[in-house]
Design goal:
It is built from 5 helices and 5 strands, in the order H-H-H-H-E-E-E-H-E-E. It is of the alpha+beta class. The chain folds into 2 domains: 93 residues, OB fold (Dihydrolipoamide Acetyltransferase, E2P), CATH 2.40.50; 78 residues. A 5-stranded antiparallel β-sheet has the order 3-2-1-4-5. 19% of the residues are buried.
Length: 185
């Protein structure tokens, strides 16, 4: 595979590769990472907001109705006690907070411009997730080089690599490693 074919598959330029070899992002890559970081942070805040709205609805609408049902029934109630609902909301809130902070730190690492490298033979993997019979399938593409596995967005990107051939891959650490350029060695 030629260097040009690999550049076309991943969408980087010779100038990007040169900057990555020096351990930094090119100006174009930095701008792209800043945009992606901002999008990730915004999505993170939206998801936290959805959880807060969901929790408010449960506390203001669902719990009062459960309390009304438990007092109006004669003798036995199948309603879930409110303390269990609060406990579940608390656990979910902790999970959401952890995810928000972890994703935020991952997005900060992406925008930092610190380029990592890994070398080794490529191992490609493409598979479909979902129900093939109902055409409800999501393709998944993975490239493993050394000890790092990169999620790729398309078969075209995956097709830029040949199994068993040694590559040096340049990436930024985020929540997942983001492959930004590569070269055959």
């Amino acid at each position: 595979m030629t260097a040009e074919a690999l550049q076309n598959a991943l969408g980087f330029t010779a100038a990007d590769l040169e900057a990555n070899r020096a351990g930094r992002l090119s100006d174009g890559q930095q701008q792209h990472m800043n945009v992606q970081s901002k999008r990730g942070k915004s999505l993170n805040l939206v998801m936290a907001g959805v959880f807060i709205v969901f929790a408010i609805i449960i506390v203001t609408v669902v719990l009062p109705k459960l309390d009304d049902n438990s007092t109006s029934t004669s003798g036995s109630s199948s309603a879930v006690p409110p303390w269990i609902i609060f406990a579940v909301l608390g656990v979910v809130a902790l999970i959401v907070l952890r995810t928000v902070f972890k994703t935020r730190s991952g997005m900060n690492r992406v925008a930092s411009g610190s380029v990592q490298t890994v070398e080794g033979p490529a191992k490609t993997k493409a598979r479909a997730i979902g129900n093939v019979d109902q055409l409800d399938v999501m393709p998944m593409f993975r490239l493993t080089v050394g000890k790092v596995t990169f999620p790729l967005s398309s078969q075209r990107q995956l097709g830029g690599f040949v199994d068993g051939v040694n590559y040096r891959c340049y990436y930024v650490k985020g929540t997942l490693p983001v492959l930004i350029s590569a070269e055959e060695i």
